Amino acid sequence: MTQRAENEVAARPDEAVGGLGRLVGRWRVDGGATGTVTFRLLDGGFFLVQDVELEQHGRPVTGMEVVGREKPFGAEEPGEDIRSRFYGNEGHTLDYVYELEGDVLTIWGGEKGSPAYFRGTFAADGDSLAGAWVYPGGGGYESTMTRVG
Questions:
Q1: The pLDDT of residue 1
Q2: Cα 97 to the chain's mean position, in Å?
Q3: Cα 32–55–140 angle (5° rounding)?
Q4: Where are the alpha helices (DSSP H) in the chain?
Q5: pLDDT tens-digit profile of 50-80?
Q6: Which of 45, 8, 3 is CA-nearest to residue 24?
């Protein structure tokens, strides 16, 4: 196989990340945090970007998150998990692992299987996602996203 053919094979969009494409658009968020989030797929289909404009506990939470498989410099294949990193307005970074099984989206805090996670279910029409953030020690909050654009 020529180098060009190998590059074309390698450039196929990631199907699992593409499955998260159902998040693409602008969403109103209600529950323990309120405001809007906007998701878009980057050209190529390998990464999803989320822009965040929320308020939680009377404080603004703004930032951006990049979601996709990690493929370090020189690696032949991308990692197994769909990971993300959130960059927030207070200078913090938060890492997550995304899983989508049917209509159920789980976002693990840090690593898959973490005691901190969000689990929500898409409505049949795909225009809302209702679930809850769960934190260790019994904390957390319900959250609903409704598509607005």
A1: 47
A2: 8
A3: 25
A4: 3-10, 15-19
A5: 999 999 999 999 999 999 998 889 888 888 9
A6: 45
